[in-house]
Write a structure and sequence with these properties.
Shape: flat
Number of strands: 38
Number of domains: 5
Structural class: alpha+beta
Bound molecules: ligand LQZAQKY5, molybdate ion
CATH architecture of the largest domain: 3-Layer(aba) Sandwich
CATH class of the largest domain: Alpha Beta
Helix content: 25-40%
Strand content: 25-35%
Keywords: Magnesium, Metal-binding, Molybdenum, Molybdenum cofactor biosynthesis, Transferase
CATH superfamily of the largest domain: Periplasmic binding protein-like II
Pfam family, one: MoeA_N
Radius of gyration: 34 Å
Enzyme class: transferase
Family: Belongs to the MoeA family.
Catalytic activity: adenylyl-molybdopterin + molybdate = Mo-molybdopterin + AMP + H(+)
Length: about 625
């Protein structure tokens, strides 16, 4: 059994302790490679020019090479005649300047008199229009210093300076061993309990991006001797070894014991979340790291430990990346026990950079895909209030974030379609959507934290959709409603409707497993409205408290037999191949501050939802009426 009691070092302390066990200067290995293949590599030595560039005096223009003294006094009134070979020689840009000549007159500044004779009306100075020897690079001057990461433009200067091969640090070789009896290679014929092996492929891509050379080994089952043999082989074949999963305290988490048997573990457990149970060890003077299995934990360890390690092997200083100040849109509670890395979405709304936290689960790979930045909550902080100013490490370029429409509110599969069509459009805009329900969307419009809020809110008294809610909750704001679709809401049940559900009475009487939507979502309001109409108390519905955030999430739970019934849109049922019992048609619209209608990206949004291509997609999804789609209704909130 491995040691269950993990240590709790602060990240920086852990890095200092760990790295102090290696002499990285000694580990820097050098090699000579072709300059033309050196992009991304790091110079291990200063590089000086072997030749000057140009290495001869050359013409900077198309024209004639002349002797400048012969041009003195030339004016429009007093043109001077020059004769070929004796007074001038025709040259093109880049040609060497013939001996005895010292300047060039551009072809547009000469008047041809006859074959072999021209007139000039301007004098030239010595070396005018000539690129003298070494104008760009002088032999023996420095082109690149040591420890410089070679860029595309550097290659040009190196080659011009006669440097055809270059000394660089060797790429550190990194062996990656995925472990776990339940881990399988990516496939679709999966059985319950299988876990698709994805981490090692992410690691390989990151290592290659960071200048290393990744070598991925086959998956090793949770077997002490097998993992040990794999580690011994990988240590022999690489400079650094990463072992994935088996880092925590489970029955089959062997990594700690094996590293300790073959070498030494310095640290097991760091005060960060996710990524806590990382193991930092050494075998045969090589770093061997046990990386937690959860994909987000693994990524955080890669960024914060493996990247700095690779930098040490290449003589590079640590690159902190781009950090920007943002305003937090929602409150986050954190623990005093660790530094927490929270993935956030970013958007510029009303000139403020707004950060919205994403799913904080260590297994949420989509939180990494959707993240625009990472926010660090310090160890001694219990959390952050909504509205507080925070610093975020950017994962995207500022311009891309500026070209993102921030959509917060109710979810519908059509939002994904709009997102795809916007990205494909000539504006190349992005759409970032958070599903917090219609009321959450209204609130976020009020706080100026989104551009668009998709809503479907039925006013029980008037029977009217959306506008009464804008009037009530967005008082004093000029809001426009971009009309969206009429969509069919109903109950989703398994194919063939095995319990023969007709309405909510059956769900209550048969005590079927219901799956609800989150508070504040229009779909939940619709359920409550229907329960009230039928006189059923919510306590009669088992699973009423169980919340999902999207229609597709509800549909997936029913499909996987984790629930019997849930409310959602027809398209979600169809996408998941479920049966559907229609209840009503509702209006799903997009609320937007009127002033945003003039923004090019909002104009593009409207153009997209009025396009034939969009309607075609709606037909494919099914259950949508788009007669009014894109129409603008102005509402004074
Ligand atoms: N009793 C305790 N249980 C756990 C603790 C703890 O302290 N006490 N720590 C938790 C934390 S925090 C983390 S992080 C994980 C670390 O788990 P392991 O490194 O031991 O990894 P496994 O348990 O084998 O796998 C966890 C999880 O990771 C995913 N996984 C694993 N390998 C891959 C791969 N190659 N590609 C993609 N995904 C992978 C998979 O979802 C596994 O279920 O332990 C907690 N438990
Ligand atoms: O440390 Mo684990 O990585 O929190 O999820």
């Amino acid at each position: 059994m491995s040691n269950i009691y993990l240590s709790n070092y602060e990240l920086n302390d852990a890095l200092n302790i760990y790295f102090s066990n290696f002499d990285f200067k000694e580990k820097l290995e050098r090699e000579e490679i072709l300059t033309c293949e050196s992009c991304g590599r790091v110079t291990s030595k200063a590089v000086y020019a072997k030749i000057s560039y140009p290495f001869y005096n050359s013409s900077a223009m198309d024209g004639i090479a002349v002797k400048s003294e012969k041009t003195i006094g030339a004016t429009e009134k007093n043109m001077i005649e020059l004769y070929e070979n004796e007074d001038y020689i025709v040259v093109d840009t880049g040609d060497p300047i013939p001996k005895g000549f010292d300047s060039v007159i551009m072809v547009e500044d000469i008047i041809k008199v006859k074959e072999g004779c021209v007139k000039i009306y301007k004098s030239v100075l010595p070396y005018e229009n000539i690129r003298p020897i070494g104008e760009d690079i002088v032999q023996n001057t420095l082109i690149l210093p040591s420890n410089h990461k070679i860029r595309a433009v550097d290659i040009g200067a190196l080659l011009c300076g006669g440097v055809n091969s270059i000394k660089v640090y060797k790429k550190p070789k990194v062996g990656i061993i995925p472990t776990g009896t339940e881990i399988v290679e990516p496939a679709l014929d999966l059985k319950v309990g299988d876990i698709i092996e994805s981490n090692s492929r992410v690691f390989s891509a990151l290592i290659n991006e960071w200048g290393g050379e990744a070598l991925r080994y086959d998956i090793v089952k949770d077997d002490y001797e097998k993992i040990k043999a794999a580690i011994i082989k990988a240590v022999d074949e690489n400079d650094i070894v990463l072992i994935n999963a088996g880092s925590s305290a489970g029955r089959e988490d062997f990594t700690y014991s094996i590293i300790n048997e073959l070498g030494k573990v310095f640290i097991h457990g760091i005060a960060i979340k996710p990524g806590k149970p990382v193991i930092l060890g050494k075998i045969k003077d090589k770093p061997v790291i046990g990386i937690p299995g959860y994909p987000v934990s693994a990524y955080i360890i890669m960024e914060n430990i493996v990247k700095p390690l690779l930098e040490k092997y290449q003589g590079l200083l640590h690159d902190e990346g781009d950090i920007k100040e943002a305003v937090l849109s929602r409150r986050i509670v954190s623990s005093l026990k660790h530094l927490e890395f929270v993935r956030v979405k970013l958007g510029f709304v009303a000139d403020k950079l707004i950060a919205t936290p994403l799913n904080r689960g260590a297994g949420a790979t989509m939180s990494l895909v959707n993240a625009d930045g990472i926010l660090k909550i310090p160890q001694n902080c219990e959390g952050l209030e909504a509205g507080s100013k925070v610093k975020v490490n950017l994962l995207k370029k500022t311009n891309e974030i500026k070209n993102t429409i921030v959509v917060i509110g109710s979810h519908d599969p059509i939002v994904d379609v709009v997102s795809d069509l916007l990205k494909k459009s000539d504006g190349g805009y992005s759409l970032s959507s958070s599903h917090v329900g219609s009321m959450g969307g209204i609130l976020s419009l009020k706080k100026q934290e989104c551009h668009i809020a998709p809503i479907h809110l039925l006013d029980m008294e008037s029977g009217e959709y959306n506008i009464p809610y804008i009037n009530k909750y967005l008082k004093g704001m000029d809001i426009a409603l971009i009309k969206g679709v009429k969509r069919i809401q109903g109950f989703m049940v398994k194919k063939g409707n095995p319990y023969n559900i007709k309405d909510l009475r059956d769900v209550a009487e048969l005590k079927l497993r219901y799956i609800n939507r989150q508070k504040g979502s229009g779909t939940r309001l619709l359920l409550d409205y229907n329960l009230k109409k039928l006189g059923i108390d919510f306590s009669m519905i088992s699973g009423y408290e169980r919340e999902e955030f999207t229609h597709l999430g509800v549909a997936a739970s029913i499909k996987e037999d984790d629930a019997d019934c849930g409310m959602g849109v027809y398209s979600a049922a169809k996408l998941m191949d479920l049966d559907f019992i229609p209840v009503c048609s509702e209006e799903y619209d997009f609320a937007v501050p009127e002033s945003y209608l003039e923004m090019p990206m909002i104009k593009k949004f409207i153009e997209v939802i009025k396009s034939e291509e969009f309607f075609k997609e709606l037909d494919r999804l099914g259950g949508y009426d788009y007669l009014e789609c894109g129409k603008i209704v102005k509402v004074r909130g």
